[in-house]
Amino acid sequence: MNSFSNIWNHPKTSVTGLLIALVTVGGVLSQQGVTLGNAGSGTIVTLVSAVATALLGLLARDPVEASSPVGSAAKLGAWALIALLLPLPFLGGCSGSTVAQDIVNWTPSLESAVATVDSIAALLAPEDAPVFTAATIGFDAASNLLDTQAKAYLANPSASLLAQLQTQIVVLQQQVNAALLQSAKIVNPASQQHALAAVQAVATIVTALLALVQSVSSKAAVAQMAAASTIKLASVRPYINRNHAAEVVAAHYGEPVEVARMQVAQAEVSEAQAGF
Fold first, then answer.
1. Residues 13, 16: Cα–Cα separation, whole Å
2. Structural element, H or E, at residue 42
3. What tens digit of pLDDT does each residue of 19-74 get?
4. Cα 201 from chain centroid?
């Protein structure tokens, strides 16, 4: 009887549990190929899972008392749950063309971040500027080539052009990682802060682009990409500003920062597990 009374006494918790169960079961059924019929261009299973996820999102937006630590923790837990249930926008590319288009869509932000890197040397101490410029000099060429390859793949998808994207994103990622490590060695505190902030902005976008390319690559291709990635994520993780990264991702995809923060963390885990 206590179980039944709890259902009535805590309706929101009960509904949340039911929705979580629906999404979980839906995910298992989809993995097993069970559809329960078609619904438009999708299936009944995916439709029910999507509706349940959307309702979880509405529950998470319910107002809570700002002064209540329990309410704040519950709200954070709800956002974490939703972030885990929703596919990452930059890991959910359903085709190579979709990924290529998303890379092209990121281009203005990447160009802006690289332009900031190009101009930041003027803010550094005289002895630090040449070191920073040397560490970041390849950003322009590498980012321009990546954009060109993405547009070429978008116009004519092929395995050879995808291979070029796979190679180029790793080249840019390695340049950024090396620049982060070099910036961290700058002794002057003000110079180091400016240098790290500028490179971090590029690093956030490059990480998203790497995840995009990774999402449409075979296991063998990802392993090859990871092998070419000699400066690993673990080496640069201490210099990554995750709050800023979440803000950039949230702005690009038009989603709450709380969700983006969880997704950025998921991307880091995914890339680390792949060997990057």
1. 5
2. strand 42-43
3. 555 555 555 454 455 556 655 545 565 556 555 554 555 554 444 444 444 444 44
4. 13
Rounded Cα gap, residues 78 and 18, in angstroms: 14
**Residue 27's domain spans which residues?**
2-85
Reported as a single tens digit per residue, the pLDDT across 145-199 is 998 998 998 888 889 999 999 999 999 999 999 999 999 999 999 999 999 999 9
How far does Cα 163 stand from its chain's mean position?
21
Which of these three, 85, 114, 145, is where a domain ends? Answer: 85
Please identify which residue in the block is written with the tokens 């899972």.
49
Q: Indicate the pTM of the whole model.
A: 0.68
Tokens at 211, concatenated:
């995840």
Phi, psi (degrees; rounded to nearest 5) at 217: -105, 150
Shared domain for 105 and 216, answered yes or no, is: yes
Number of H helices, E strands in the chain: 13, 2
**Three-class SS state of 38:** strand
Coil, strand, or helix at residue 39? strand
Please tell me the distance from the alpha carbon of residue 268 to that of residue 272, in angstroms, as a whole number. 6
